[in-house]
Amino acid sequence: MPRPIHATVHTASLTHNLQRMRMTAGDAKVWAVVKANAYGHGVERVFDGLRGADGFALLDLNEAQRLRDLGWRGPILLLEGAFEPRDLELCSRLDLWHVVHGDEQIDWLSAHKTQVPHRVFLKVNSGMNRLGFAPHRVRSAWTRLNALPQVDEISLMTHFSEAEQAAGITPQEAVFVSATADLPGERSLSNSAALLSLQAQPNALKNDWVRAGIALYGSSPDHPVHSSADWGLLPSMTLATQLVAVQDLRAGDRVGYGGAFTAPSAMRIGIAACGYADGYPRHAPTGTPVLVQGVRTRLLGRVSMDMVAVDLTPLEAQGLANGSGFGFGSEVTMWGVATNGVALPIDEVAQAAGTVGYELMCAVAPRVPFSLSK
Fold first, then answer.
1. pTM (two decimals)
2. Could you tell me which of 98, 182, 223, 226 has the fewest CB atoms within 10 Å of its CB?
3. Which fold has domain 11-217?
């Protein structure tokens, strides 16, 4: 029998979340961002749920090739552009649009031999200070690109560093607007956070394309200010396992490595087949939420490589009994949706562990088998 841990990707939830983003996007077209192997979900597994997008945005040429192999013939955008000159050969072959954020990439384009000019997105550094041309250099970069026969249409984009609230968007928007004034081309400014924080004003930013990322996967970009439910998002991934043992503790008994949890009184705990080798955060402390048989409870003690301990007291309080309600083989939902429909948002688990939902999604280990659910 295989180890019981498994992850499920919910296709219908992906479609729902995409439609939710489209509703907030106003007149703009929507990129479905599938970088990092679709935030850990798998490009192939999310494709059917997200194929209603206007285009896909990602980082790796390998992921772009996989999308073409799946039959996608629409736009694909490389969010960080080429990493070396020969990447442009694959951009030509796969008909990829790509970001230009530095002089080196313009140099490579000028030397690239192609029969079909490329669609590029010129990136403006409006305050994130990661990638992009400084505002005073945007026009010279645009002029260089516009003079190249290798370049067809030039679009303009930026990335907000504080898009979780509208006030954080305004200063960078002003920099972008000033730097690109009178330059032709489509614009792309908003990510998930900007879309949701400005949802009451869907056309507040001049977007021809929006980049829907984390929200597609049912995570709130501004948790805990807003939950995924507040934004009308559904979990796209469930990480579930089973109890593989039950222990009856006496007062003073300690649990796990280092005895990090001490039983205050007699209590029953379960041992679930999930650990940090599965991608669950090792630093998740006692109190991190978990579901057993769809009942909300908590982790106890340290997360080990292959197992965690969970408190079964809430199940006993509901009158469930070993053999009829919980015990060996009982369902344990580490995040996502339990069989009875109760949801545990990944953001709550991430917050308890001092991280973000993005990391937990991306960290699910290769040894965890995946399946699809409609």
1. 0.94
2. 182
3. TIM Barrel (3.20.20)
